[in-house]
Structures are given as structure tokens and as C-alpha cells.
Amino acid sequence: MDVRRRQAKMPQSVKIGADEPPMKPNNPKPSDALPLPLSFTNGLFFTMFFSVMYFLLTRWREKIRNSTPLHVVTLSELAASVSLLASIIYLIGFFGIDFVQSVIYRSNEDAWDVEEEENEKLIIEDDSRMGTSPATTLGCAVPVVPLIPQQPTKVPVTEKPAPIITPQSSEEDEQIVNSVVEGKVPSYSLESKLGDCKRAASIRREALQRITGKSLEGLPLEGFDYESILGQCCEMPVGYVQIPVGIAGPLLLNGAEFMVPMATTEGCLVASTNRGCKAIYASGGATGTLLKDGMTRAPVVRFETAKRAAELKLYLESPVNYETISVVFNKSSRFARLQGIQCAMAGKNLYIRFTCSTGDAMGMNMVSKGVQNVLDYLENDFPDMDVIGISGNFCSDKKPAAVNWIEGRGKSVVCEAIIKEEIVTKVLKTNVAALVELNMLKNLTGSAIAGALGGFNAHASNIVSAVYIATGQDPAQNIESSHCITMMEAVNDGKDLHISVTMPSIEVGTVGGGTQLASQSACLNLLGVKGASKELAGANARLLATIVAGSVLAGELSLMSAIAAGQLVKSHMKYNRSSKDVTKISSQGKAHK
């Protein structure tokens, strides 16, 4: 396409003298400012932009794979970053020049000579982009309003927050903080390098604040024994979270009184459970019975054929081989005692569910060691066995599963009480008939409609979680430990209420894990189940499971009564809502910052 610009007509008010050279039209081009041709310059910067971007993305991917901090930059990466910045500045400037060019061309009434008629459409589109009317370009006499270029949208730029710098107690600590920030010293290695867990947490905390630019003010650092969690409870600590602990009780259970510690941030929970304990106490107490005690682990193994998998299944289930397998399993610990083996097949894959007693420990590590011993032993007779995983989810740990609901896992407990009619009326503010009907329609029928799996209760999980956090249990095991069915029935000619909770998989321990921490150990001591039992192995853990079930019984009784009496919303509005003005707190926080 050959397009030539005609010389613009001179205004009549301007006269040219005889000795003066004729004036040339003032049509500056932005590209005249470039030292190189425009097409060459554009190609150069576009090539540099994409090449540098590819190089940096490749380097970043390698750093992520090698766990190298992204902020550690080599000389070549620094040069590439500078080149990338230069190309970006040029491209931004280039698009800005286009906008200026469109304004200049719109102010001049230029005309275009078109020699090839078949490219007329392209010329119109180019002129429209430059703000010139197509009708004017083609020489038509129709007056047209020139197009107004769209103003560029301003994109808000999010500035990176300034690093928060807290002066360190010594120059050495300051150097270590800088090394962590620069990626020269891994954060996870501070404890081993320094030999001081408290100092390591303090340095890690400061480095985190400088890297993120976010303050950790409000997250306590002082007043915690960081040595006690090294290698067993938490890695790379920067502080600890405070959770209030309330007391519900006394809970009268099996003739003994217990003050139940509950760590929670939910208002009404401790108060409601305490009311349930009061009703149970006034009615003569509750009775808890341990039904089963055995932790499980289920590896998955695979064979070339389903026939071979079936042969191992028959071998494990044979009474002839059970004694030998028990001896191999029980070598793992003086407390581990194999109780049974349950197998399930899926094609040529075999899932083997081992159940064993674990003393006062929750027992996951203990049973896993015993399972590994058995698998090593079985390889002698089944060399073609391929162990896919030590856990095949047939255990089943930290997941809602029907096998736990039916077969049980950990401690299986049933707890019951008979609440007298006058207690239901005076303490619980409702009546027996209303409670029985509500339990049937809510906990049983409603849960069935919802397709619940082990959730035939009002809020067993609330009490289990609170007691677990207070006593150092694994909070994630609240999932299967909260499996519970609550039953209510009118007894004694319909005057009194019989209430029970059946919980088949309460997973607790009084030794190991978080139970040895000072706060959690104090809560266990309050219940009288701290550490291992000196009289009978596993007695403390079994008693703790019974207390958990008794606490759930109290919580279920109180909440169901509140719902039956229409008090649930009223009580939560009173005790579970902050009376503070949030807007004032927010403004004060901003002023403080």
C-alpha cells in the first residue's frame, strides 16, 4: 500500500515574503526523537523483553525446585532485571507516544491520498485509531465530530510495606537476622546452630517481620519453654497462641468428681457444659463404661494377581499363624499387644487393619512400629508382596470413616445418666417429653436426612475439641473422636429422662506429644490422669476417654435443653457476642500503628 501525506494548506492570515523560503508544514513525528529507526528499536526492545523474561522465569523455577530463596540474586540475574526494567520503561513510553501522536493528528486537518482502492478499509481503521473521521479522510463533505481518545485508566500501585526492624540485643544477633533475611542461613537450622531455642525463635520472628513487612505484635514470645517442643511438637516456632481455659464441673462420673478443663474461644460452651454437669450431679451422677481399647493401623500391599493377595489374606486370618504374627508385632514395645487383624481386598490390593493396645499412649507410633515388623516378616513367605504404604486409610486416621464408627478405634465408651424430672424443670428449664421428641427429630432423624456419618448428636465435637486442646491431645483426631450417637428416653413412667452417649473412637493419651507441655500437663494433673499409670498400664488414658464421654454427655444435655426451651439464640446473644465497639477498636489500632 502506497500512502503519501499531502502538504497541508497554509492559513490565509500568514503571508510569505519574497525573500523568505516557503514554510514547511509542522507535523512532528515522535519517532524522530529515536536514534534508530522505529521498527528496529521496537524489535530490539520486544526481543530483549521476552528473552529476559524467559531467562528470569527459568531461574525462578530452578530456585523453587532447589528450595533457594527467590530474593537471593546473582550478578547475571541482576543484569537481566535491569534490562527487563529498561524494556518495560521503553514499552510504556512507546504507548504513551501513540497517544500524543493521535492528539497531534486530530488537531490537523490532514488528507490521505489512496492509490489502492482495495485497501480502503484498512486506511479507515488507521485513521479512526488516530482520531480522524473516515468521512473527512475520503473527501466527503459531511461534517463529522472528531473522536475523543479514551483516557488511560490509572491502575493503583500497591507499594511493598516497609520492613519492620526491631533492634536486636547484640550485634551478633543482628548479623544472624540479616543472614536469614538474605537466605544465607536457613531458618529451620537456627536451633541447631545456636543451641538456644528461645534465641532461635526470637531471631526467626524478627527475620519474618522484616521479610514480610508485617508485625507480629500481639503474638507472645516470652513465657514459653521452647526447649520442650524441639523435635517433637512444633518446628520453626515464632511464638505461641493463647487460648483461654475454662472449668466445667464438678462432673460426677462413676462416683468420682472431676473438674473438666476446656480450652475454647466460643462463648457459652463452658457455661453450657457446666450446667449439664450440675444437672447430672443433682441427679446422682453419670456412669461411664469402656467397651474397647485398641489403636489401629492399616497398610496397603499389592501383588501381581488377586489370587496372591487372597492367599495372604487367608494366611493372616488363620488362627494357626496368629500367634507367630503376635510375637513379631509385640516386639515393637513392652506396651503394644496385638488384638486382632482385619483384612479387606480391592482387586489385587490388600488392606490389613491391625488393632493393638498401647498403654497410656495414644499409640499411633507404637502400632506403626509393630506393623512394620510384621511386614518385614511377611516378606520371607511373600517375596512378591509390594508394600505401597504403611497407611492405606483403612485405619482410618483423622477422617470420618464408617470403619471407625462400626469397629471402633482408640477407646470405645458409653456414658449414661438418669435426670430427674424436677432437675429437668428447674435446672434445664424444659420437660422430658420435649427433650425426647427433639432428640428424635434432630439428632436421629435430622442427622439421617443429612447423611451423617457418626454425627447423630447435637455438638459432641465442641466438647471433644475443647478438652483435647486443654489436655494436649491431637486436635485433628477430633474428627473420629467426635463420632457419637445421643439417645434420650423417658423412664420411670415418663417422669425422668434417660440420656446416653455412645462414642466408639475416642483417641487419647496421657503420655507423649503435647501432653508433656507445661500447660497441658497441668490440665491432665487437674483430672488426675497426668503421665503413665503406675498401677495398671493404660488406666489413665482409659479414664481420660471416659471423662471426655461424660463431658460430652453434659454438653449434649444442656444444649438440647436450651434448644427445647428456645433459649439458644438468647444465650448466645448474651454470652457469645462482644460488647466492644469494633469501629473504635479498629480506629485505635490504626492510630497505634
TrEMBL record:
GO molecular function: hydroxymethylglutaryl-CoA reductase (NADPH) activity
Pfam families membership: HMG-CoA_red
Disordered: region residues: 1-32
Swiss-Prot/TrEMBL GO biological process terms: coenzyme A metabolic process; response to jasmonic acid; saponin biosynthetic process; sterol biosynthetic process; triterpenoid biosynthetic process
Domain of life: Eukaryota
Family assignment from sequence similarity: Belongs to the HMG-CoA reductase family.
Keyword Secreted in record: no
Membrane topology, as annotated: Multi-pass membrane protein
Record keywords: Endoplasmic reticulum, Glycoprotein, Isoprene biosynthesis, Membrane, NADP, Oxidoreductase, Transmembrane, Transmembrane helix
GO CC terms in record: endoplasmic reticulum membrane; peroxisomal membrane
Classification lineage: Eukaryota, Viridiplantae, Streptophyta, Embryophyta, Tracheophyta
Main location: endoplasmic reticulum
Record's subcellular location: Endoplasmic reticulum membrane
InterPro entries given in the database record: HMG_CoA_Rdtase, HMG_CoA_Rdtase_cat_sf, HMG_CoA_Rdtase_CS, HMG_CoA_Rdtase_eu_arc, HMG_CoA_Rdtase_N, HMG_CoA_Rdtase_NAD(P)-bd_sf, HMG_CoA_Rdtase_sub-bd_dom_sf
Record-linked Gene3D superfamilies: 3-hydroxy-3-methylglutaryl-coenzyme A Reductase, Chain A, domain 2, HMGR, N-terminal domain, Hydroxymethylglutaryl-CoA reductase, class I/II, NAD/NADP-binding domain
Entry protein name: 3-hydroxy-3-methylglutaryl coenzyme A reductase
Transmembrane segments: 36-57, 78-97
Pathway of action: Metabolic intermediate biosynthesis; (R)-mevalonate biosynthesis; (R)-mevalonate from acetyl-CoA: step 3/3
